[in-house]
Amino acid sequence: MALQDRIKEAVDFIQPKLSEVPAYAVILGSGLNGLAELVENPIIVDYRDIPYFKTSGAPGHVGRLLFGQVGGKPVACMQGRLHFYEGNKPEDTVFPLQVLNALGAQNLIVTNAAGGINLDFQVGDIMLILDHINFTGTHPLTIGAEQGLYDFLDMTFAYNRELQEVARQVAASQDLNLREGVYLGLRGPSFETPAEIRAFRVWGADAVGMSTVFEVLVANLLKMRILGFSLITNMAAGVLEQPLSGEEVIETAGFAAVKMESLVLGILRAL
């Protein structure tokens, strides 16, 4: 079945349940489920019930959509994202976002848990994503290329500068030391080696993770305004003399997520 037909079927399933158009899509990263608690009077739709949605199996990802109001704005929260490393195809990971856009979302706030590469960063910091490096080895739009449909996207201004300025102002009003930098996305699921981290630092990467880049690529194709944040849940391999674990990422994200919640809420109120 053609992509647009699958999107329409998913939209037709979700739309009758909604009372308003969700103008903002928010994607919650690992351990950041607390943001979902900000949604007022949520309408909950499980991924497994939506046509053509894959289920989210990664730790810390519930796998459902929440529709409602946050900061007076109509939002659709992805409480759990789909990852490439779970065995999904790149185009599967972005299908939920394409559906949310078809439902009316023209703005995307994307969050993730990431490892800190920048030696000035500390665990618990929030980084405003200025740009990204796609080192997954693939692209969510290659399926179109296989069908003879090429989208040579201009990625110069993928992350919206006006939204970034709002984020800076809100962070300043909250006395939050908002870091800024470049996010590098990998396929995963293994953590990086210390040698890889040293190489990524030379490339100009400040944080590293296993998500986000596919969603931003497709959101850019859809002409959505994009704002991205990384919660630094651990220092990347080799920065500290200690091993890394997924449990540490989830635990730290849960501890530091209140800062992210306050920031996102303030941004939505300010828009």
What does this structure look like?
It is a single chain. With 271 residues, the chain is α/β, with parallel strands linked by helices. It has a single domain (3-270), classed as 3-Layer(aba) Sandwich (Rossmann fold), CATH 3.40.50.1580. Helices cover 32% and strands 24% of the residues. α5 (194-203) links the parallel β7 and β8 (207-209). α4 crosses α7. The longest helix has 25 residues, at 246-270.
Mean pLDDT: 89
End-to-end distance: 38 Å
How many DSSP H or I helices? Answer: 7
**Helix and strand run:** HEEEEHEEHHEHEHEH
How much helicity do the residues have? 25-40%
CATH topology heading: Rossmann fold
Q: Largest sheet, if any?
A: 5 strands, mixed, barrel
Order of adjacent strands in the largest pleated sheet: 5-8-7-6-9
Unreliable spans: none
Share of β-strand residues: 15-25%
The total beta strand count reads: 9
Structural class category: alpha/beta
CATH architecture: 3-Layer(aba) Sandwich
> Outline, from the CA principal axes?
globular
**Radius of gyration over all CA atoms, rounded:** 17 Å
Supply the CATH superfamily name. Answer: Nucleoside phosphorylase domain
Query: What's the structural domain tally?
Result: 1
